Amino acid sequence: MSYISPTKIDEALEVLSRGSGKIIAGGTDVYPSAQPGQHPDFYLDVTRIDGLKQISLRDDTIHFGSAVTWTDIINADLGPAFDALKAAAREVGSVQIQNAATVAGNICNASPAADGVPPLLALDASVELASHAHGARVLPLAEFLTGVRSTALRPDEMVVGLQVSVPPTNMTSAFEKLGSRRYLVISICMTAVNLTLGQDGRIADARIAVGACSAVAQRLPALEASVIGQRLEKVDIKPEFLAPLTPINDVRGTAEYRYDVVQEQCKRAIMQAASR
C-alpha cells in the first residue's frame, strides 16, 4: 500500500488507472469507513492538484473544485441562492472538520444524511467526472447518487468538481436541519429550498430537496409545482407532495415522525427563503 500525492489531474488519473485505489481529499471519512484486514492498493491525495481548491466562474457556470472545503464555501463570496449551502456547510461536523472535509467527499461518501446534498440538489448541481481511459463527463447530482453509500463513479474515475449554473440574482435559499442535539449530529431530517419571488409577491420558481428521509436525498417535484404561482400565505404542504420520500424507523426517529417534521421544515424553509 502506498500514498501518492500528484499535482496534476492527468497524473492522478493515470495512477487511478493502475488498480484499486482510494481517493482522499479531507480524509475525514477514510478511517471511520475502513474495514479490518482490508485496504486499497494506494491512497491518492488530490489536495495538491492545481485548480481543485478553487471556486471560479466560467461563462455562466460556478465551478467548485473537488478539493474545496466546507470552510471555503462558508467564506466564499456567493449570492443569496447559496445561503442554504453555506448553512449546511456550518452543520458539517466541527469547525476542524469543516476546515478539512470537502464538498466532493460529501457526495462521494453518499450518506443519506449528507448535509451538503439537499442544498446542492436545490441548486441543480452537476458533477464533473474524469477518467484516464474514458475522458470527461458531467452528470446531474441526482443521477450521480444511486443509493446508500453508492454512486455512479467508475473505478478508474474521479470527481474533479461540481458545477452550478449562475442563479437569478433574486433567487434566495434556506436550510433547515433537525438533529437530536444542536451540534455535531447526524440529521433526523433536513430540507433545502431555493426560491424566486415575482414582483407580484407570488412564487415564480421553487426547488425543494429533503435529506435523511430516503436512500438518497430527493427533490419534491409535486410540492415545487404546487407552490409556483402561489402567494406565501397560500402555501400548503400536503402529505401527498412528500411521495418521493421513504423514511425509515431508526434510533433517531420513526418514519411517521420524519414525515411530520419534513412538512414543517418545508414550510419554514420556504418562509425563511422568502424573507431574504
UniProtKB/TrEMBL annotation:
One Pfam family in the UniProt entry: CO_deh_flav_C
UniProt protein name: FAD binding domain-containing protein
Domain spans labelled FAD-binding PCMH-type: 1-169
Sorted UniProt keywords: FAD, Flavoprotein, Oxidoreductase
SUPFAM superfamilies, A to Z: CO dehydrogenase flavoprotein C-terminal domain-like, FAD-binding/transporter-associated domain-like
Keyword Plastid: no
Phylogenetic classification of the source organism: Bacteria, Pseudomonadati, Pseudomonadota, Alphaproteobacteria, Rhodobacterales
Highest taxon of the lineage: Bacteria
